[in-house]
Known about the structure:
The chain is of the alpha/beta class. It has two domains: about 180 residues, FAD/NAD(P)-binding domain; about 140 residues, 2-Layer Sandwich (D-Amino Acid Oxidase, Chain A, domain 2). Helices cover about 30% and strands about 20% of the residues. Strand 15 and strand 16 form a beta hairpin. It binds flavin-adenine dinucleotide. The site of flavin-adenine dinucleotide has 44 residues, from helix 2, strand 13, strand 18 and helix 8. Flavin-adenine dinucleotide binds next to helix 2, strand 13, strand 18 and helix 8.
Amino acid sequence: MSATSARRNSAVRVAVIGGGVIGLSCALELKRRGAEVVVYERGMEIGAGVTSRSAGMLGAAFEWSLEADELAMAALARQAGEMWPDFAARVERLGGGGVELSAEGALVVARTPAELDWLGGMAAACQARDLPVRRLAAAELKREEPALTGKVLGGLELPGDRQVDPQKLLLRLGAALGKSGVGIRMGRAIERVQIASGFQMQDGDKFERVVLATGAGSKPRFVSWQGDVLETGLPDIVPVKGQMLALAPVAGAPKHVVHARDVYIAPKARWVLVGATTERGKADTGVDPDQIARLKAAAVALAGRLADAPEVTAWAGVRPGTPDDKPLIGETAIPGVFAAMGHYRNGILLAPVTADVIADQVLDGKVSGLAKPFSPGRFDKPAKAPHSRSSKH
Length: 393
Ligand SMILES: Cc1cc2nc3c(=O)[nH]c(=O)nc-3n(C[C@H](O)[C@H](O)[C@H](O)COP(=O)(O)OP(=O)(O)OC[C@H]3O[C@@H](n4cnc5c(N)ncnc54)[C@H](O)[C@@H]3O)c2cc1C
């Protein structure tokens, strides 16, 4: 960013609604580029949404195929993966502590010929995109990760697919925002925004831009000074419930993130996470003991020593999905209102790149080629709003 654009944007006031990883990351980047930023969060503390319930894996290479409709997502994921080391360093420096960015990458395990084909497709997709990948024979895989005790036919190493502790990340992001001078207003559910030469929140404070980062929560209504409700054109967020299990760390547990077709294991310093279910359309956070038992059995089948690991806790979170499973990043049908939501199963990974794209658009009206496919305009309903879509404000 040039000094000129920092000066030009210094007076811009931006309200970020939603204090999950996406809202907090956007707020940090907007502030870094000179905006005055306030985050509104309906929870009484940071971590009320799904971010704190996630596994924190940064799957920049994992599972992005060569299918045409995944190319844009794969490019975004790749960019995010490249940004993570610097992003983590900045959050740690400003936030006063670590986020546990792992040094090692992820392993993917195949136990059947069909799974070997799956791995072959993933390896080809990584190679086509110049992402680091290493094919491993069964013996190499077990040498790399001695905790794998079950039968394996082969595997992949994805050295760039690291992980963080999502709860520590939220904590550090909150501290980083405080240190940077971003206002964080907790216990403020924003249900209505009044449009009258800017955007007025329920507490009366006024902003020139709004970023919606409400995850699977509720989006506010935008009401004109005449009392008309203006449509953002955003589709409904599709809730996708995920249940997960935390096991106590035991000797002989995996050191890497390990993916198999039916389960993943993500070892953190304080516990070993085993996930996750994918229950589309479900928005509750109840935990089903049968699903948790299934996850544990699948993890034990991969890494037998986990059978001895006491269960610490289990939880469920609601991923913010979209009708096409791609995030909504960019200006809505209401000029000055931007979406940063719908990150489904990759919100932790995509946080730094989302923040970058949002800051480009909110402060400079710049929509990069990388960002275009994620424009909320792809779902535009006929707008009731008297405004037309524009990136100028
Ligand atoms: C089991 C599980 C495992 C996962 N594992 C991974 C993983 O390994 N890697 C990965 O990248 N992703 C993972 N995810 C997905 C990831 O958690 C999400 O994509 C990401 O956390 C979404 O972040 P967010 O900020 O959009 O949403 P949230 O974290 O939900 O934040 C939204 C915030 O907005 C607030 N809010 C909502 N409405 C309002 C309102 N009207 N006014 C004020 N505040 C409001 C909420 O309280 C909440 O704090 C996982 C998800 C689950 C469920």
